TrEMBL record:
The keyword Transcription applies. The keyword Cytoplasm does not apply. Residues 13-76 form the HTH iclR-type domain. This is IclR family transcriptional regulator. SMART domains: HTH_ICLR. Residues 257-290 are annotated as: Disordered. It comes from the Bacteria. It comes from Bordetella genomosp. 11. Keywords: DNA-binding, Transcription, Transcription regulation.
Length: 290
């Protein structure tokens, strides 16, 4: 649901905020798109408001509508704007050698995801050498935190109060996806206790997935490393070995990130927080839930 605060608000600022929220919801639909009725339910806005925003975004090329399904998809203007920042994710750049090595070691598909606001976003994918690769999600996929093992791992790295608030903020979107808040919080609690988010039954039938957080300098996760495979490849002793290799990769990524962050941002480590984009921000207590 789209949140506004009482002091916010010139009407123009509120409109921009709502338009951006609609864009993020549309992005979750990837190539299949999102129905108007679901955008209304997930945003908490009334139908005329959502329709008006969509109409303007379509006119600007930020969103397009499939003429057959009537579903809304991210438009070409957004893709073109993104080309202006081809090096937007330094975390992926420095993590890539470790992702490639991990995929080679385990033989299965490896993903890197980050948290952005209330979502988890896949920013990298590398395939292994096993004949059957489980390509469960595409790079750029945006999902509410807690949907999928990567989102569970990211939530588990946060304090319980913060992760609970994020899940509650996503309630409308989770409902549309058929997810219950209590089920996600149970998965997060298990992942927090074990350090691993594991889905024995993955998004695709006969598959499995496991994710672990990449530790950040402030205790929160920089991202999450995920391995997806056929279910019989993530059982018993092999599961233990895969998780061990994942931990080594995550620790290497975290260490390398810390080294490069210190060079780019001398203030890092001295009362500052560094996010997944490589920017340092002065910390004033714990970061507020976005």
């Amino acid at each position: 649901m789209i949140e506004t605060s009482a002091d916010d608000t010139p009407a123009g600022a509120q409109t921009v905020r709502r338009a951006m929220a609609i864009l993020r919801l549309v992005a979750c639909g990837q190539e299949r798109g999102v129905r108007l009725i679901d955008l209304v339910r997930m945003s908490g806005l009334n139908r005329p408001t959502v329709h008006r925003l969509l109409k303007t975004l379509v006119q600007e090329g930020a969103i397009e509508q499939d003429p057959e399904t009537r579903r809304y998809l991210v438009g070409p203007e957004i893709n073109l704007l993104g080309l202006a920042r081809t090096r937007r994710f330094p975390l992926l750049t420095l993590a890539d050698p470790y992702l490639i090595e991990l995929a080679h070691q385990v033989g299965d598909t490896v993903f890197l995801s980050i948290r952005h606001g209330h979502d988890s976003i896949c920013i990298g994918r590398r395939t292994g050498h096993h004949p059957i690769q489980v390509l469960s999600i595409e790079v750029g996929v945006r999902r509410p935190l807690g949907v999928g093992v990567s989102g569970v791992a990211l939530l588990a790295s946060l304090p319980p109060r913060e992760s609970t608030a994020l899940v509650a903020a996503n309630a409308a979107r989770l409902s549309v996806l058929g997810e219950k808040q209590e089920d996600i919080l149970a998965r997060v609690a298990t992942a927090r206790a074990t350090g691993v988010a594991h889905a024995p039954a993955g998004l695709m039938p006969g598959t499995s997935a496991v994710a672990i957080p990449v530790p950040g300098p402030d205790g929160n996760a920089l991202g999450a490393v995920t391995v997806t495979a056929m279910a019989n490849r993530l059982m018993q002793d092999r599961y233990t070995e895969v998780v061990r290799q994942m931990r080594l990769a995550a620790e290497s990524i975290a260490r390398r990130y810390g080294e490069t962050s210190d060079k780019r941002n001398p203030v890092a480590g001295k009362g500052s927080r560094v996010d997944g984009s490589g920017r340092a921000r002065q910390a004033k207590g714990r970061a507020k839930t976005p």
